[in-house]
């Protein structure tokens, strides 16, 4: 494989190359006590496992690095719950140094005092090494709790952790809390919000979506990562979970139908032009268009507005071009960096220093 | 009919009352016979008799209610629980059932569903199913049975019910010939007709074979799921269009009682043309349906 091959978003990375492009891949870390549901989350969100199947997952016994080949190349580090990574032999700098977001999972159906203590020590340790980490707390397995109890639990956890951090002199550490469950869409929504914080182009994308919505009479637009059904950007109007759910179900339907009738396509070159329209009885139209290999734009609009389909098609086309330009910048940047790394590597090899792999 | 707990009511709820598989857990046991009238294809009314399977009821059906239950039966659907321990007893009831059918309505079609196949390990399924079918066929002589393996968790349920319903619709051939014609006119690869409420396949016309034999059931299942998620957002599913680089699929209502799915593979044919064809065909099929059921 030549180096220029993986300069664009080709998903096939060799593991031995991970060192060089580590910085370009925001790392996501999943942590929590044993049996808090980390592996299940990972399987459900990134591997399309159904929630009921996760019951049969065995407990994880080693750090499980999982590269997700999706729009942004992020990594999920699934730490086994029973490991004490504050052991002095563990290199905290290596662990937390390049982490973009640290997701701490708390089992809300369990007694969570131990988890909170662990969360506190994790945050303190990680913050010392890398103050740029965003800390995200998933109050997990809330499907078993009543509505009132959910709110109480969240308030309790939030209060305790912020107080403890304040006592430790870390008032300015921001923790975000989410109520999640793998049995509904809440885990996807929480991940969407986490991942949005890791995307440097987010303000630009949101702005583009806003312009698109304003000029085409679109009520709501989402930019979805097709594989994980996480939305990486949306316009600035408030998100209601219903429209998110219907959009993610739409992706499912389209993938399923395409897998039945689009099978002949495997040999042929795909030109990423999947397009779909679903009309609903209450006058809503769902409009999907594939933007690139990983992303799809889904818009919700009224049937009246959709009469001018040509206009919308054109506007979406413009949006697509703008997006390509945004990512072209990033790609150019990355290719440049890879070229440098490549040169360095060649030099090392030339000098006979490249022997660690 | 079938033994207690074999899953008759769950099945009925999924197909005819828009339950999702998970929710059937909440269903209680059926007491005596639950009659339900399902309007199918608008004018065709199915009288569904869901017979409670507990032993007391079963004895009752064969004794005092024998005439009442087994008169004028068009289709007998007997459900077997594949996990059942007491196979001999199942067979005993099944045979009593057949006897009663033979005397009271001997033209009835008999479908046997080997249910809960999902509970059997994947590699054993074929073997167990074949064994059961063989036994059933020898036991049900002189009557012919049509066996199916089913599970509420996948599309096999739709396959079984589609075939059952298919056998009940009058003039299916006529409908199919018109579909063939329609497919030829709009140069479609495939046209499938679904019932509107249940999304069971009624008829289809294939010009280019796809290779996946279970595709209709899969589509039924997919769309049904999506319809349910639509109804959660206070909307109802109306129509959809999917376009890829190598195929275009359209699902839209055709008549008051049916949905049609048109699959095109020629990318140069514009969506609007196909949509126009569908809307023109609507009138024709509406008339056809009217004529068919007024007879």
UniProtKB/TrEMBL annotation, chain A:
Where in or outside the cell it occurs: the entry states: Endomembrane system
One Gene Ontology CC term in the entry: fungal-type vacuole membrane
Q: What superkingdom does the record give? A: Eukaryota
Which InterPro entries does this chain map to?
Gtr1_RagA (IPR006762), P-loop_NTPase (IPR027417), RagC/D (IPR039400)
Q: What GO biological process terms are annotated to this protein in UniProt?
A: cellular response to starvation; negative regulation of autophagy; positive regulation of TORC1 signaling
Q: Which reaction does it catalyse?
A: GTP + H2O = GDP + phosphate + H(+)
Supply the Gene3D superfamilies for this chain. 3.30.450.190, P-loop containing nucleotide triphosphate hydrolases (3.40.50.300)
Alphabetical UniProt keywords: GTP-binding, Hydrolase, Membrane, Nucleotide-binding
Q: List the GO molecular function terms.
A: GTP binding; GTPase activity
Q: How does it assemble?
A: Component of the GSE complex.
Q: Which family does it belong to?
A: Belongs to the GTR/RAG GTP-binding protein family.
Function per UniProt = GTPase involved in activation of the TORC1 signaling pathway, which promotes growth and represses autophagy in nutrient-rich conditions.
Q: What is this protein called?
A: GTP-binding protein
Q: Which organism is it from?
A: Linnemannia elongata AG-77
The uppermost taxa in this organism's lineage are: Eukaryota, Fungi, Fungi incertae sedis, Mucoromycota, Mortierellomycotina
UniProtKB/TrEMBL annotation, chain B:
Major site of localization recorded for this protein:
cytoplasm
Q: Name one Pfam family in it.
A: Gtr1_RagA
GO CC annotations on file: chromosome, telomeric region; fungal-type vacuole membrane; Gtr1-Gtr2 GTPase complex; late endosome membrane; nucleus; Ragulator complex
Q: Which UniProt keywords apply?
A: Cytoplasm, GTP-binding, Hydrolase, Isopeptide bond, Lysosome, Membrane, Nucleotide-binding, Ubl conjugation
Biological process according to GO = cellular response to amino acid stimulus; cellular response to nitrogen starvation; cellular response to oxidative stress; endocytic recycling; negative regulation of autophagy; negative regulation of TORC1 signaling; phosphate ion transport; positive regulation of TORC1 signaling
Highest taxon listed in the record's lineage: Eukaryota
Q: InterPro entries per the record?
A: Gtr1_RagA, P-loop_NTPase, RagA/B
Q: Which SUPFAM superfamilies match?
A: P-loop containing nucleoside triphosphate hydrolases (SSF52540)
What is this protein's function?
GTPase involved in activation of the TORC1 signaling pathway, which promotes growth and represses autophagy in nutrient-rich conditions.
Q: Which family does it belong to?
A: Belongs to the GTR/RAG GTP-binding protein family.
The entry describes its oligomerization and partners as:
Component of the GSE complex.
| UniProt-recorded name of the protein | GTP-binding protein
